[in-house]
């Protein structure tokens, strides 16, 4: 049996799958893709994932992409502790969380980070180099968003919407943890894994939202998550570029 995981820093979507694989106790070959060097767009990697994104899992020669779907597969196929609640209704609640992370939490974080960072990145590169990098991004939507971010083109209305989303996510997490240790059914699950992958950088990147006074339960949950051996092992994966999670 061969298990190969292609991933970036232990942050964002890569951290999502790294947590699941370590929580299950699966031994795997780690292939680090340096996103700051645009290795996700190298020809060899595009043969694995033509979208030019990490993570990607290759199990016995078959390629799996999309972090949330990869995690469901990992839980279904491999031995180890269950990462889904037993009850189908609780599984539904778990998937509402993972969907919310993919559709709201992660994009809001990303767009705000791109707005803050991409203009500086574009200016720091030699003439034409940013455009050359953009041209190598296979996904048209991604290419256009990065070009827009570089020119400071996101509107105040869009930025406000993403900031509002982050406040809403924070409040939802805090509310879900009232009287509970984990987000769904008092059982650690893929919901905790997905939210944590994006939330781990919140106390640093969005400290006005995530702090001991405003969100004591969310802060305690972050510590509970970090204390899990599988999550700790995922976070301890090499961080070659000192990439900070909230910049994903
Ligand atoms: N929907 C995909 C998104 C993957 C994704 O956006 N990955 C980011 C890193 S967290 C990436 O590869 N970024 C580099 C790029 O898009 O060029 C998933 O959940 O796996």
From TrEMBL:
CDD domains: GST_C_family, GST_N_family
Domain GST C-terminal: 87-247
Domain GST N-terminal: 1-82
SUPFAM superfamilies attached to this UniProt entry: GST C-terminal domain-like, Thioredoxin-like
Pfam families registered for this protein in UniProt: GST_C, GST_N
Family: Belongs to the GST superfamily.
Protein name listed in UniProt: Glutathione S-transferase family protein
Species: Sphingobium nicotianae
